[in-house]
Design brief:
Layout: H1 2-25, H2 30-36, H3 40-45, H4 47-72, H5 76-100, H6 105-127
Helix pairs in contact: 1-4, 1-5, 1-6, 4-5, 5-6
Length: 128
């Protein structure tokens, strides 16, 4: 169970690295604007905010990835803690997104379903 959870945690981390790239690297490009539904002017006005927000996503991905590595090399308590904190935070952010903007339910699902599965599988694997 834990291994399956780590696979979903890895998927969640990769998604959040992609979100980092969209928000912090290519925010004002047509692709990112299409993804987030912003105009050129809106993207320019929110560039600094998106840059900062993208790094939050990257940090969650890094913590989750480090946790996966630590579990793999035998440091289960610390590694599992990092995985659960990282994916739990990703899940919480997706809930904030859908609650604050129900029209973004699809984006919240993309952002939140893999970490949800990871949290459930890792937790069940650790408890049972």
């Amino acid at each position: 169970m834990v291994i399956a959870g780590l696979i979903f945690a890895g998927l969640a981390a990769l998604i959040h690295v992609y979100i980092f790239v969209l928000e912090s690297v290519v925010w004002t490009t047509p692709r990112a604007r299409r993804t987030f539904g912003t105009t050129r002017e809106q993207a320019q006005q929110t560039r600094e905010m998106a840059f900062n927000q993208g790094f939050y996503n990257l940090f969650l991905a890094v913590a989750t990835g480090l946790g996966i590595i630590l579990v793999a090399v035998g440091y289960l308590p610390v590694g599992a803690t990092l995985v659960l904190v990282g994916t739990g935070s990703m899940l919480a952010a997706s809930l904030v997104l859908v609650l604050s903007s129900p029209a973004k339910a699809r984006a919240a699902a993309v952002q939140g379903v893999p970490p949800l599965i990871a949290v459930v599988l890792v937790t069940v694997g650790l408890v049972f």
